[in-house]
Amino acid sequence: MAKGDLIGHIDCPSCGIEKGMRITEDKNGQPFGYCEADCSQQLRIGGDARRVNQFFAKHPHLKRPGTDTHTEEKPAPAPVQEPIPAAPTKKTGMASALDHFGL
């Protein structure tokens, strides 16, 4: 998202018009409200991470900046294949003789 991208709408806290306040991102990527329905009230929400978190907790219908709003199905991971064990090598000569004696 970029500066001015629409996050959503909330009820205006000043004039009370339902979904009258447009919430967009300010220049710092924080939510900012403007009542486009009636009173032109401005609402600065950003500046404090705790306040921003409380705002989004109160308005869960808003899309939070930096999150993907589309839920795409991710392809299933490929099945893990067990490695095929290498065939044992045939020992010849001295190695075969030592194995015979358990050495």
Distance between the termini: 70 Å
> What is the SS-derived class?
alpha+beta
- Give the oligomer, counting copies of the same chain as homo and different chains as hetero: single chain
From the alpha-carbon coordinates, what is the Rg to the nearest angstrom? 32 Å
SSE pattern, N- to C-terminal: EEEEHH
The profile of the biggest β sheet is: 4 strands, antiparallel
Strand order of the largest sheet: 1-2-3-4
Uncertain segments are: none
The number of strands is: 4
SS strand fraction: 15-25%
- Overall shape: rod-shaped
- DSSP helical segment count: 2
- Output mean pLDDT: 80
Helix content: 10-25%
How would you characterize the overall build of this protein?
The protein has 103 residues and is an alpha+beta fold. The chain has a domain at 6-58. Helix content is 17%, strand content 17%. The protein is built from two helices and four strands; from the N terminus they run ββββαα. The chain has helices at residues 49-58, 94-100; strands at residues 6-10, 21-25, 31-35, 42-44. It has a four-stranded antiparallel sheet, with no helix packed on it. A hairpin with a 5-residue loop joins strand 2 and strand 3 (31-35). The mean pLDDT is 80.
